[in-house]
# Entry
Amino acid sequence: MSVIAFILLGSVVLLPAAALMALRWAASSGQFRCPDKAALLPFDEVEPVGLETDRILGGNRR
Amino acid sequence: MKNSQETPNASSSGLDRGENHDVTELHAAVLREKPDPIEGFEPVNLWVVAGIAGLLFWGGAYLTQYSGRFEAMEFSEFPHGMPAPVAAVAADPLAAVKRDGMIAYNAVCALCHGEDGAGKAGVAPLLAGSDWVNADGPNRLLRIVRHGLKGTVKVNKDVTWNPANDAGIVMGSQWEAIGGTNEKLAAVLTYVRSSWGNTGAAVTPQMVADGLAAVKDRSAEANWTQEELLQVPAGGSGAPAAAAATPDQLKAQLQALPADQRQAILKELSK
Amino acid sequence: MIKQSQTLRALLPGDALTGGGTDVGNKAALSEIDASCRVPVLFFFLSGLAWLLAGTVLALVASIKLHTPGFLASWEWLTFSNVRTAHLNTVIYGFASQISVGVTIWLMCRLCRIPLVAPGLITVANLFYNIGVTVGVGGILIGDSTAIEWLEMPRYATPILFISYALIAVWTIVTFRLRAERHLYVSQWYLLAAVLWFPWLYGTAQVMLLIEPVRGVVQASVNWWFAHNVLGLWFTPIGLASIYYFIPKVIGRPIHSYYLSVLGFWSLALFYNWNGMHHLVGGPLPSWMITVSIVASVMMLIPVITVAINHHFTMLGHFGKLKYSPTLRFMVFGAVSYTLASLQGVASALRSVSEVTHFTHHTIAHAHLGMYAFFTMVMFGAMYYILPRITQREWPSNGLISLHFWGVALGIALYVVPMSIMGFIQGTMLNDAAVRFLDVVQFTLPWLKLRTLAGLLLAAGHGAFVINVGWLLVRMFEPYRKPVVRILTGEAETVAAAKLP
# Structure
């Protein structure tokens, strides 16, 4: 029982603390600052915005 | 940005040139710095914000209504101040007994007599609306369940059931199958006598005990026949009327007893 | 490193080259990332697909048994309770979790823009993970189930699973720490959170339910907290991370609103964790616990609607591309199903609805809408994108792709829609004291046969996919026929033109 109590109380304190730290880290390292840039992250010079990358069906593969 | 370069020309020919010029010049740097904001950071729609606010409000309201004041021992599924609605069904004092009987009946008896008590041609007679079931008392019924029944049976005066029973279809004792207690037998009979339009009175465990006391020495394999049962009054204490006993019936009763008891009686009589 | 990337250049896939054709170094980097993922991700995908086939067979057996109880009745280790439980554990831990890990690893490397750290170690972890699942499912079939929903695997199987999972999680996080791109894309938020949430859920549930069991109704509440959160905090984030990456990537357009995606992530993180106890409406729990759970379930509308708006407006004007891209088809099918599944879930969390739908086939339809129509479809879409890139071969057969898509799309529609309706009617019948239970059972029979039919369609789709993947693997071991090296020296156009019909 005491083991469980420790685990539970520990996680009750630690998990929200971890979530808050993650939020703080995200805010301080500028993760929320330039969303226009973040939205472009899946793209790069090789596969830029405007390039379709999975044209398989319909006869014209790319 | 194209705009910032075209503006000087446009403003020099326009009417409100002074103002236009100032504003664009002031913001020229900003306009040049930022790329075209086409996609990727569309601001959040105001309706979405309003919807979220509405949801949060509903959540708070529901929480206060149904939280049971955050008491550990509060289990009500209803809002504060609303008493839990009482079931509108008139309380049947026998409901639990009938339910108990129904479970045993459906598990054991229904295989032949049917869940609806309609019986099965050639196998088992009907129970719904049967004069045997609706008789004054349960004495015959409890004997049938206790020791079984063989041979043909006339139900409701004119319908003869089980013509094929001579071919070997016999109702054996169901005593153990339904649980082997007076309470269980009483529950099953109460259920049968009150279902499918039947109008028989409830059967108490005491009535079963009294009825079975008269035949407590009878072997479970000694199935009853229609003729034997008709000697037993349906109501009352269930003991066969001694005066009505013919020699044949006495002989049959004697044969129904366990062998050692039969020997004992015969020895007593031969003295 | 340079030597490695040079050898990799020789293996560059055709589709990466016909696009820009300017910066060879960047292509090589992208290809190097894909190549570093090749072995572990392939292992996860292939073993996941093997478990998918096993799970499909078990599901069909269970489904047939529901309307024809005599089917395989003489095999005691294939009783309904065993088969149904084995099906659940096979598809959750064998199939879905393994594909999730494969997709997570690949997405993480792509978005961090670095090759995978220690791929060999992750491959070993995969091997042990599969041993764990095999032991667990075998244990269920021989009757060692713990009888706790979603945690049925016997206790001797779980440590292997947990340790191999921990290895995978640790190396995903190490990869993240070493990332070359400092800014996080929304997919990375989801992936990191999922990778950290799952061990928390699994560990807590193991301790509180199996190792040192809590007593009474607390067990039920922990159980549902775990079972629901596996869906919401492990599978859902990985599915959404995939959608957020692949839809923009395939149609070549950034996500509609990054603000909305951030709002969606943090509201999911805030609300989902509370949801599980809405399964216990009417149960002997203090009413505030269930009420809190219901409120949180309704609050899930916030992340769901933001995600739906975001995906819809991203796709707007690009729906024509569904014709050409299998990835996009599966992703959009999954995204739409996510919205539908969530709305259905919100509705059935309400007390008045739960009274009817709980303990009926409605719940089962809902589970498959979430786990299959949303999550599995998204994973199929991701595999259609990832597999050609890590094997550097094209999909061998377009016909099999179509067969796969239409088989599973029609199959799951035929599963979910009738079962939802039937479950609702079944619930109203069950609540009516005048209707006999046997009549309710008989009412469900034709619908259950329809479900077996739907299951056969799904199985056909899975078969087509597995054949296509097997064919792709065969091609992988053949020498690459196209003159790739010449493409690098500037003859890309001629080859690309020659490829077109």
Notes: Chain C touches chain B through 32 residues (CB under 8 Å). Residues 2-499 of chain C form a domain with the Cytochrome C Oxidase; Chain A fold (CATH 1.20.210.10). The mean pLDDT of chain C is 88. Residues 24-67 of chain C form the longest helix (44 residues).
